[in-house]
Structures are given as C-alpha cells and as structure tokens.
Amino acid sequence: MGKRPVPEVSQNTGPHVPVLLNEVIAALSPLAGARIVDGTFGAGGYSRALLEAGANVVAIDRDPSVLPYAEALSADFPNSFTFVAGTFSQLDSLAAEHGAIDGVVLDIGVSSMQLDEAERGFSFMRDGPLDMRMSGAGESAADLVNTLDAEPLANLLYAFGEERKSRRIAQFIVAARDIAPVTTTLELARIIEKAIGRKPGDAHPATRSFQALRIAVNGEFDQLVEGLFAAERLLPEGGKLAVITFHSLEDRIVKRFFDPEKGGPTQSRHLPQVQTEKRRWDEVSKARKPGSEELARNPRSRSSILRAGRRTAAPARPLSLDGLGVPKIRGAE
C-alpha cells in the first residue's frame, strides 16, 4: 500500500475513539504472538492497540474511506498487520488464508468519523445527503424514505429503532415527500421533530428513526448474526470473541448468541429434563460498560456494552436466527 498522511489514532485523539479499549485488550489476552481479527477496522484504534500489545492483526472493513488508516498501520507494522476489504459477516473466509486465529473483536455501529462526515448522511446534527450507506453501494436512506408506503415505513422505524411514534413520523414523511422528495439529513430531522416535538433535555427526536434507517440500509442485524456465526466457525477451542454493541437490540442478539438458553422458553421443573446442547462458548463475561473516566473522556461511549466469551471444543452451529431476538419488520416476509 502507498503511504498517505493520516491523523494519529489513539485512545485519546483521532477521528474515532475506540470504546472499552482496555476491557477489549483484557478480554482477548494474552496477545503476544496471537493472531487477532479486527472485523470492524474503522480508523484502526483497536488494531493499533492490539499490535502494540504484540499481536498480529488481520483487519476487515467494507468502507473505502478507511484505507488511509489501514495504509498508515501497514507502514508502522509491516510484518504484523494485514488489511482485507470486505464485510465482517464473511470474516471466516476472509481470514482463513492468514493462518490460525486466536481471537476476534467486533465493534458494531457507526464510527465517530462516519458521524462527523456530513456527506455520509449518518448524522441528524449535520446537513448532508440522506445516504447512510457504509459501503457506498445499494439503496440509500433517501431511497427508503421516498419510496416506502406509510405502513411499511412505520413498521421499519418501530422494529429497528423502537420508535413508539413511528406511525405519526411516517405520516409526516409521506406528506412532506408528496410536495418534494426528502433528500437531506436536516430536512428529515426537521420533519421528525415537527411530527413528535422535542422536550428540553431529551435525546434528539430523530435519534431512533435515523438508527432504524441506518440499520435497514446496511443490513446490520443480518451482518451481526452472520459475523457472530462466522467467528464461531473460525475460532478453535480456546479462541476468544469480544463484541461491542451500542443499543439494546444488538446487545440482546449478542447475549443470546453466547448463551442460547437465555432466549429459550423456561422449562417447568415438573417436566422431564431435556438434555441441552453442548455449549459453544464458556467464560462468557457479564455486560461491561464504560467507567466514569471513559465517559468523561468520550461521551459517545455512554451506550456501549462489551460481551466476550471463549470458544469450546463443541462443533460450530449452523447459522440460525432462532432464539436470538432479531427484530422483524411487521408484515415483511
């Protein structure tokens, strides 16, 4: 890779501050000589910390804008860093040719650098095209907002954003686009604020709707589930997986993936006991959240949750959504 100047990425500076970094390092340790897959490379904060701890890193990302950061790390760690363009849902096949893997880290969600680039269309705080595509390909958020009928749009906002006022928001969007297409982030944010109002001190009224559209545009729940099962296939016994999520819908999926019994029906103690499947993960950590120091340093970390586990010898499961609590859009097949 050719060299391009990029800003230093560390725990304190740079376009994206990696959350729960110390906790991730601890969850994946020991790192000296280990080979780790950073499935959501971004600006490289986790990769750099892993490399500095002595690991070899195979980094994966589908966003073309991360290439300068990958090139910088490749220059700094030419013998221990490899970047592969692709989605983390395919991390097992993408990492297979790079040797045995000891650990995987997945940071699920939008990075600060994506939020801060108005032209990417992720943020309701900056005016830009209503895009939200991480890869730059496929349907954009504007496509969904301007083509879905009111009921499917409301169902999407409710399922993926837990937006309780989704029907009213959808009605206002349809009314606005009947006059002219909705094409910018601030335009959509204003429509949502007009629909449901805004109370002082509350989160921006567009927060949940923008989350829902971003998840739909990028197929994030499908990507998450496929990435989790890809990690299960890839990691050998003793391999470690650390996953950082940013809202309750994602965290529920990860929690139930590590411990499927959490998502199953409660069995009566009066019935014959059914033998459960062998566990694919042990040493599963409780949810870890940022401490007060990290919250003061990086307010965007406030919603982050880390869960981690260690792979057992049990064979990997076939991919299945059963019991994971993956949100489904009402009326969709």
What would your notes on this structure say?
With 333 residues, the chain is an alpha/beta fold. The protein folds into 2 domains: 21-113 and 220-311, 3-Layer(aba) Sandwich (Rossmann fold); 118-218, Orthogonal Bundle (DNA polymerase, domain 1). Helices cover 38% and strands 11% of the residues. It contains 13 helices and 7 strands. The chain has helices at residues 21-28, 45-52, 67-76, 91-95, 112-116, 141-147, 150-161, 166-179, 185-196, 207-218, 220-234, 248-258, 292-297, and strands spanning 35-38, 56-61, 81-85, 103-107, 240-245, 281-282, 305-311. It has a 7-stranded mixed sheet, with helices on both faces. Helix 11 (220-234) runs parallel beside helix 12. It is globular, with a radius of gyration of 21 Å. The N and C termini lie far apart (44 Å). Mean pLDDT is 87; it is low at 1-15 and 264-268.
Strand-helix topology:
Elements: H1 21-28, E1 35-38, H2 45-52, E2 56-61, H3 67-76, E3 81-85, H4 91-95, E4 103-107, H5 112-116, H6 141-147, H7 150-161, H8 166-179, H9 185-196, H10 207-218, H11 220-234, E5 240-245, H12 248-258, E6 281-282, H13 292-297, E7 305-311
Parallel strand pairs: 1-2, 1-4, 2-3, 4-5
Antiparallel strand pairs: 5-7, 6-7
Helix pairs in contact: 7-8, 7-10, 8-9, 11-12
